[in-house]
């Protein structure tokens, strides 16, 4: 079952980290979050040219530039080698782990993630969510338990495992 709507928390506009982002990065985040291609794991294709086609005045280079603050703040994890992007907090905020069938969809779609760093961050975020919300029904599913046993990777570590944002200057890359 494909997603046909997106849940956006209204308190996003008072989240200090989010409102500290440039408006262009906020736009990209909302664009990714509302993408019809976003999986129940929070993963979509990273195709800057297609994303740029969402607005008449954008280029793929603009999209990469807008992504940099989101990557720096761990809002997204982008694996350019596999052309995937993770909206890191999607699983936490969408509420799907409290719904038996949506938890199954998340576990099923986990297997389609090609990026090892992104798989690791999904496992990491699920582990954090389980610690915060142990009452969610989805945790009892065998397929979800299997995902939870995967190697967890913290977002900062995952970013070091992926190709750098091409909009970053060589000086910025060497500082990391």
Quick synopsis:
Helices cover 49% and strands 6% of the residues.
Topology readout:
Blueprint lengths: L15 H4 L3 H11 L9 E3 L2 H5 L7 H13 L3 E4 L4 E4 L2 H5 L5 H11 L5 H17 L9 H7 L6 H7 L8 H6 L1
Antiparallel strand pairs: 1-3, 2-3
Helix pairs in contact: 2-4, 6-8, 7-9
Helical/strand content category: mainly alpha
* Average of per-residue pLDDT values: 93
Written as H for each helix and E for each strand, in order along the chain, the element string is HHEHHEEHHHHHH
Q: Sheet bearing the most strands, described?
A: 3 strands, antiparallel
Which oligomeric form is depicted?
single chain
Computed over alpha carbons, the radius of gyration is 16 Å
Strand content: 5-15%
Ends distance: 40 Å
Compute the number of helices: 10
Segments where pLDDT lies below 50 for 5+ residues? none
Shape: globular
Strand order of the largest sheet: 1-3-2
Number of strands: 3
Percent helix range: 40-55%
Can you tell me the number of structural domains? Answer: 1
């Amino acid at each position: 079952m494909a997603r046909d709507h997106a849940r956006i928390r209204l308190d996003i506009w008072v989240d200090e980290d989010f409102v500290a982002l440039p408006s262009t990065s906020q736009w990209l985040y909302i664009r990714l979050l509302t993408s019809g291609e976003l999986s129940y794991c929070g993963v979509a294709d990273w195709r800057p040219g297609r994303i740029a086609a969402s607005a008449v005045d954008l280029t793929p280079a603009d999209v990469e530039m807008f992504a940099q603050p989101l990557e720096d703040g761990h809002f997204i994890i982008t694996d350019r080698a596999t052309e995937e992007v993770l909206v890191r907090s999607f699983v936490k905020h969408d509420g799907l782990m409290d719904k038996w069938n949506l938890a199954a969809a998340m576990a099923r779609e986990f297997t389609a993630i090609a990026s090892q760093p992104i798989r690791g961050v999904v496992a990491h975020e699920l582990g954090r969510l389980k610690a915060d919300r142990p009452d969610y029904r989805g945790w009892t599913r065998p397929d979800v338990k299997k995902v939870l046993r995967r190697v967890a990777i913290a977002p900062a570590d995952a970013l070091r495992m992926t190709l750098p944002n091409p909009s970053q200057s060589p000086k910025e890359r060497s500082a990391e």
